């Protein structure tokens, strides 16, 4: 009987995760409620579970969701995909701009279009914008109204231009007086200047009071040196048209009619100019730098291609579900509503995320996307996880009360593991959450 008992205990020890107790100790020492943490660690090749805690509990994934939506978009669009904005001339001497939702399109590109038109002696009767690439929805489901001035969450649309951001230049004046505020380039934004010029501090914030004046931005705080702040464009279509009109004036093209919306004809037009950007630029921006505008645009374009119609949230999610079916992943415990992870309506489990990472690791196109996961010292890991050097490729995520990290780690013994950590705790500071993530990953790396 004793031999059987010893053998049974030995079997339990053999199959117990070596790092379980140490991770539990980390959470206890850092005064984190174990129920607020989800962790899943699996073998990247086999998918065998190595460690888990609350791994089936749905939580807000924040920007770690970009790993899934970006991979699905790449699978649909292909590594050779290019964002494209085209200018056509019709036989009726009209110009058509066929928008492609390119998140990297700039005002300089619009000047290039007009310069090309002038060099070809095109004096258009009418200028039309074909915006049918996307629907008219410019924000994701569940995005928070109080993030309307957050430069990390601009609107996204067919009219993407200059990142859909404005430069607000604030220059201090005489001490105790209001500074000057200039919006660059020109855009009709009304800013209530409640800032004070000081000598030793710069602390400025922007807010709207929708109950009193929804179209007025209140700028408050103190400023000691000239500073440029970023603000999202409220109306991307208006901003695009202003920049196009500006390019027309500056290049002295004789055009005085309004810029109209019109669908590109199928006949009697020829391509006069095209500006493109490679998808690789978007993969890096989405995964390394966690750019929400790029992630949402990429996701919507993939939905448009999959459905062979206008890009919309519905078509993107249909594309995503088809991708999950191809990977044979059960989606019963998750909910995805946008492409960036900004929405708090997104729900993800650690178990699903690591199952997805295993599938991705063993897929044919893993090499195409692996290089765009940030390593310590770059992107959102610029000042984090430096301990791991080249052993870690991970995507981070941060929302109020939530911090997450997911990806691939090569242990000190050379074993490749997938992991997901989500901490959803209002009482723990963001910095402490990030520190806990690193402590857990060190334990995974060592043991």
Short description:
This protein is α+β, with helices and mostly antiparallel strands and 447 residues long. 31% of the residues lie in helices and 25% in strands. Residues 3-18 have low confidence and may be disordered.
* Outline: globular
Number of continuous helical runs: 11
Mean pLDDT: 93
Order of helices and strands: HHEEHEEHEEEEEEEHEEHHHHHEEEH
Distance between the termini: 33 Å
Proportion of residues in helical segments: 25-40%
The CATH architecture name of the domain at 18-78 and 280-446 reads 3-Layer(aba) Sandwich
What structural class do helix, strand and pairing data support? alpha+beta
CATH structural fold name of the domain at 18-78 and 280-446 = Beta-lactamase
**Poorly predicted parts:** 3-18
The portion of residues forming beta strands comes to 25-35%
Strand order of the largest sheet: 2-1-16-15-14
Sketch the major β-sheet: 5 strands, antiparallel
Total beta strand runs = 16
Specify the CATH class of the domain at 18-78 and 280-446: Alpha Beta
Radius of gyration: 25 Å
CATH superfamily of the domain at 18-78 and 280-446: DD-peptidase/beta-lactamase superfamily
Describe the protein's architecture and organization.
By secondary structure, this protein is α+β, with helices and mostly antiparallel strands. The chain has a domain at 18-78 and 280-446: Beta-lactamase, CATH 3.40.710.10. 31% of the residues lie in helices and 25% in strands. Helix 4 packs across helix 5 (236-250), helix 6 packs across helix 7 and helix 7 packs across helix 8 (313-327). The chain is built from eleven helices and 16 strands. The strands form four sheets. A five-stranded antiparallel beta sheet has the order 2-1-16-15-14, with helices on both faces.
